[in-house]
Design goal:
about 160 residues; mainly alpha; 7 helices; about 0% strand; globular
Length: about 160
């Protein structure tokens, strides 16, 4: 009786695995797994940061200055691409790939998160990113880049 119970239990487990796509064969469950993105929490000294007086993140002049930094001094476009899709020439060989700055997932982070990453980079983060910070930048330039990155939403 014990052997029969064991055989029935084993058959049930195999049937469940096959039904759930865990049988290792041709499964009907071919949906891609969601991309897991690891993001550190914003450190306390950046968490409450706000743009300085006179830096309006929605002002076209601020966005334009951020775009200049993105393409030039910031060197962001080399990895993130001209349009922010993560498809820049230098980013093609990186693992992990550069973030798509236009994506809803990325755009859901706080302004403080973007500012922190712009200013400090992400090297040594949980994802193993190679992103460096905006070396020698002042606070205003950091926020100008935030403004430009925000302008990329959904493009």
């Amino acid at each position: 009786m014990n052997r029969l119970t064991m055989m029935l239990a084993g058959a049930m487990v195999l049937a469940l695995l096959a039904a759930c796509g865990g049988g290792g064969g041709n499964s009907a469950n071919t949906a891609p797994k969601p991309k897991v993105i690891l993001r550190k929490d914003v450190p306390a000294d950046y968490k409450e940061k706000k743009p300085p007086a006179g830096v309006d993140l929605k002002a076209q002049a601020v966005i334009d200055k951020g775009k200049e930094l993105y393409a030039g001094k910031g060197n962001c476009a080399s990895c993130h691409g001209a349009g922010g899709k993560g498809d820049g020439e230098q980013g093609k060989e990186l693992n992990p790939k550069p973030t798509d700055l236009t994506s809803a997932e990325f755009q859901s982070v706080s302004d403080a998160y973007i500012y922190w990453r712009v200013m400090t980079g992400a090297v040594g983060g949980p994802s193993g990113s190679a992103m460096t910070g905006l070396i020698g930048a002042g606070e205003e330039e950091g926020w100008q880049l935030v403004a430009y990155v925000r302008s990329l939403a959904g493009k």
